[in-house]
Amino acid sequence: MAFHSISGRSVAYRLLGSVVNPLIVLAHPLGMTQAVWDDVIPALLPRYRVLTWDLPGHGASQAVGGERITPADLAAEVLALVERAGAERFHFAGTSIGGVVGQQLIAAHSERLLSATLTNTGAVIGTPDLWNTRAGRVRQEGLAAMAEEIVPRWFAPKAFEASPALKAGWCVQMGRGDDESYAQLCEMLGRDTFTGKLSGKSVPHKVRVQLFGGSEDMATPPATLESLAAEIDDAPLEIFDGIGHVPAVEAPALFAQSSSPCWQRTWAMWLTTAWHMPLVLRPASRYWARITWRARPPTPTVWMHPSSR
């Protein structure tokens, strides 16, 4: 882990992989840390240089001083870290609030993006009342007290069955976060939306976008992703069956049964040079699921792991 001063605040980041590979930036969800990507990074490193970082007051990044946070502030952190990595253009992948950062990059810095993969996010997430209420509670009660209530919403029930320690681990991690930074980010989500800002008419440079969601996601259900897809000129959308709000944590467990490159095909391969090609992937080995990729799917495709059939 390394640190970089951005706007007078220390930001924790990791830069991994060969400098000859294209850069991909990964943005984590609210209340979590860049550790979310630990099981994804090995699949990306053969073809990407990987940059992850902690949001304000999360992980090892310094907390905010009470000032209002905007999506533009978070996008500026990304661009500062990309500059530090020596890259001009980059791929981006973000989950939840990380996907909101991606939307800001699409809206304001599309010329810098090679592609954007947005998961479990929306042009509008929740309501202002929901986020303002949570911000107020966090300031009064603290993240450590609220973690037991919030963390279970991140994962599908079967994720806790597969790993009983998962909930406790992320509760501990969330409790270490800065209350004010989290509250400011909540208020940002309630205040700033991207309705009408992401279509080809609004974005000067065309960005290749792929959307992912989870069928068990309570925070950003499939309908939220469908609305976002419509905002981005019917961007391709995949819904993973039986997965909650954080596929980067839940999905690796599904793929651990096989050494097939299925994981790369269902996540990392969306970021390869074959974006423009309509195709049907039939994963080999023990995987009989079919992944359908169309430029403008009429309905979201649902990916089902063989064990759930």
UniProtKB/TrEMBL annotation:
This is AB hydrolase-1 domain-containing protein. Residues 24-257 form the AB hydrolase-1 domain. It comes from Vreelandella sulfidaeris.
